[in-house]
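Obj: model holo form, ligand = iron/sulfur cluster.
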Amino acid sequence: MELFDPLIGKVNNLVGSAAPVKYPYDPDRAWEDAGGNQLVMMRESAYELGGDNKPAVNYACVSSGDYVDRDEIWVYGRDLNRIKSSTPFARIVLVRVADLEGEGEEDTEPVFRAIQDIDFVKYHVYPKGYMIRASADSHREQVRVSKEAVHKGISFEQVGNLYIKEYKKDPNVLSVRVIFVTADDADYAEMKKDARMIRDITRTLSKIIEGMATDCRSCGLKEICDEVEGLRELHFGKQKKLK
Ligand code: SF4
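Output (holo C-alpha cells):
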C-alpha cells in the first residue's frame, strides 16, 4: 500500500531544523494508562500542548514500504519536562503494515480497514495525567498535561511507548514510529494540510467501497484521485474483482 508514501517522504522536512532525540520501543517504559477517559481540571493543569490556539496537529500514515524499519519514538523540540506553558504540538505516526494487496490485485477493503483500525488507536490510549482532546474534523489533538504527571516525570518516550504498545495489538502492524513535535520552527500549517489530505484519501476509499460510479469524468472525487497516485488502481481493481 503506497497511497501515503509521498506524505511520509515529506515528514522530515516539516518537523524543524534540529535533529530528533530517538528512543527504541520498550513496553516496560510505557507511561501508565488510565484505562478510560479522564478529566484534568484547569487548576490541576501544568500546561497544554496546542493550548491558547497554538497548532495541535495529528495524523497517521500507513504504508507497506520500508520507511519504518523498527519501533521507535522520535522527539523534535522540547520534551514534556521542559515545557512550562502552552506550546505548538504535533503527533505524527508512521506505520508499516503487511502487504494488504490480495493475490497481485489491489483490494480496497483491507486497505481501508487497516487505515481505520490504525486511526482508531488514538481513541484508545489514555496516558494518565495526559488528557487528549481530539477533533477528527479539524485534525487537532490538544493535550492537557497535569502537574502531577509532570512531577512524576512524564516524557514523550513513555507516552510514545504506550501508543506503540496499543498499535502493536493490530496483527497487520509490523513497525511504528511515533513522532512528537514541539519545535518552534516546525511547519505545522503544512502538517495540517497533509492531515486533511489523509482524511480525503480515507473518505475516497470509503466511497469506493460503497460501490460508487466508475466514470472518472463525472465523479466528485476526481480531484483527489488526480492528485494521489494509486487511488484509481484501487477503485478499478475492486471493480474487476466484482465482475
Ligand atoms: S477512480 Fe475515478 S470513479 Fe473512482 S473515485 Fe476516483 S475519480 Fe471517482
